TrEMBL record:
This is MmgE/PrpD family protein. Residues 9-101 form the MmgE/PrpD N-terminal domain. It comes from the Bacteria. It comes from Chitinophaga sancti. It holds the Pfam family MmgE_PrpD_N. InterPro entries: MmgE/PrpD_sf, MmgE/PrpD_sf_1, MmgE_PrpD_N.
Length: 109
């Protein structure tokens, strides 16, 4: 399959590759990025800004297709917003200059 646009290539990758297809170096980097993201999420969960977002009326739907641990079920778009907030909160306005990286590790998650 030949896909010329970036969105199409990302979709193709997501549907055709599996964990077993990844090279050992990519797996090692993935583990580092996941650990970095998880640490940021744990740190951010008690931040005042994040707590304010949780208190917004109707923030979490009582039914949805995504289960957020500790918080409950919500819609896909709200889950994405929450995860983005938690992952990026600690590094908001932060710069990352990695020798062999293209962006901040959490951005890759």
């Amino acid at each position: 399959m030949s896909v010329n646009n970036i969105t199409g290539r990302i979709v193709w990758f997501a549907f055709t590759f599996s964990y077993e297809d990844l090279k050992p170096g990519a797996i090692a980097q993935l583990k580092k990025h996941l650990l970095d993201a998880a640490g940021s999420m744990l740190y951010a969960i008690k931040a005042l800004t994040v707590e304010k977002m949780f208190r917004q009326p109707g923030f979490l739907q009582t039914s949805g297709s995504v289960d957020i641990p500790v918080l409950g079920n919500t819609s896909v778009d709200q889950a994405a917003q929450l995860c983005t907030l938690l992952v990026r909160y600690a590094a908001f306005m932060d710069n990352y200059l990695g020798k062999h990286a293209t962006c901040y590790p959490r951005d890759n998650i």
